[in-house]
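**User:**
My hope is that you can spare some time for a protein that puzzles me. This is the protein in question:
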Amino acid sequence: MKAMILAAGRGERMRPLTDTTPKPLLTVCGKPLIAHHIEALAHAGIHELVINHAWLGEQIETTLGDGSQYGVRIAYSPEYPEALETGGGIFQALPLLGDQPFLVVNGDVMCDVDYRALPAEPKGLAHLVLVPNPEHHPQGDFALQNDLIRSEGQSKFTFSGIGVYRPQLFKDCRAGKFPLAPLLRRAMAENQVTGELHAGFWMDIGTPQRLNELNQRCNK
């Protein structure tokens, strides 16, 4: 399986830290945030990676190179003149990802999910990892009914930003900037999205405060 790390966001909520450094290169526990993702994927036996980038993306390529320092091979999907959002970014990278299901990980989260336990062949078009709702997102995103994910339901959980997708999810898409959620909701309506609830560690590193909290956690 190949994996894609989403790293094209501007990181507006992280400013001024991201004015001169792309968010994936911010330091977490002594190394760039994105390095944690690369190492976790390599540990899970996933060595073919695709990384998209936009804002200050040349810094990402300079820092990570071809991935050999991590024991992986990295292909880049630059997005210019602006980031294409999650859906558009994945769609542009499909030629690099191939025709088999692939894993996608948001570059601005930290999670101890075991990638080896995720399905290499989802039953439907996608398989999502959900997590308990954090304080900053109490309303959640999707409901989990048995192993199917629904757009509505009594108890909603938060989408972790980690999922396995079939390229067919994007079959009706066109190049350009567009979000991923509408594609997922349409697939959910057709019972084509499975999922699981991860009860372990997960954090959305979207603000300087949460970045500091994570680094303090590392030092304990």
In short: Helices lie at 33-43, 57-64, 85-97, 181-189, 208-218.
